[in-house]
Amino acid sequence: SPDGTRLTFHRRHNGDDRIMLFDLRSREMTDLGRGFWPSWSPDGQRIIFQRSTDANKHDLFVVNLFNFREEVFTDDPYDNIYPSWSPDGRQVAYSSLREGVYQIVVTDFQGTSPTVVTQGNRNAFKPAWSPDGDRIAFERPDKAVYSNGEPLFINVHLIDLGQGIETDLTGLNASTRPQSAWYGSPAWSFDGRYLLAEYWENGALGSDLILLNTCAIREKAEEKVFSKLGQLRELKQRNPRLMIGVMGCMAQLQKDAIQRRAPIVDLVFGSPAIARVGELVERVRREGRPILGVG
User: Fold this and answer.
1) What is the pLDDT of residue 230?
2) Which pLDDT value is given to residue 215?
3) How far apart, in whole angstroms, are the C-alpha atoms of residue 240 and residue 231?
4) Using an 8 Å Cβ cutoff, are 136 and 117 in contact?
């Protein structure tokens, strides 16, 4: 939730998709009903989600967390999925099947004025608003149609809502990868400077960056960290572009041991530097050398 006191998530239970609400203070779990892909309103009072309403049809619903009253948000002939509330709470973006292609649609918070903001013959999924509300990141394949056995490539795109300009941010295609690859589920940093995305390659989860968060007071903290770094050694060998970092208080205290026992580590920094992680990652890539022991 925006205030950090509750979590909402999707759970698959007995073959049914459910929207769950978990209160971190009381530890109480509430089942909000059938649904998938929940998104908080910025005031934390409502959750919007998708629900199957027919064999090949989904609509969006909103539940009010004050009285748990549920309302239909979309009621049209289109398949509507992946809702995302705008930062100011005045609009909702979602994917909608229009003339055989999923496009990003933006509407007011009452769902009465839907506007298609993307174009073309390639599907657009999982919209994510920038913190300033001026841009939306989303997934889009590099082709409209793939033949059997042809590698699939999914990229993160960005649409500037003011100018209507769309940009491919990741540029995956058959010339950049020999096998299927996928950047998906984009999420923004709070300052709007960075985008986080899942990365899959040839059906397996991959990454350009892995960060291990450590705590010095945990039982056997050092053994667990070095054991995990040992497991990552083979992954680093298979993927030379992978950057491995160790963060937190144990990392700050044991930076010399980490450098000696785990030369695969590219970045070591303590808890005070967590807010600078994006800057530190860029520095490692720019300088081409490990950066260890940042406070």
Assistant:
1) 85
2) 76
3) 15
4) yes
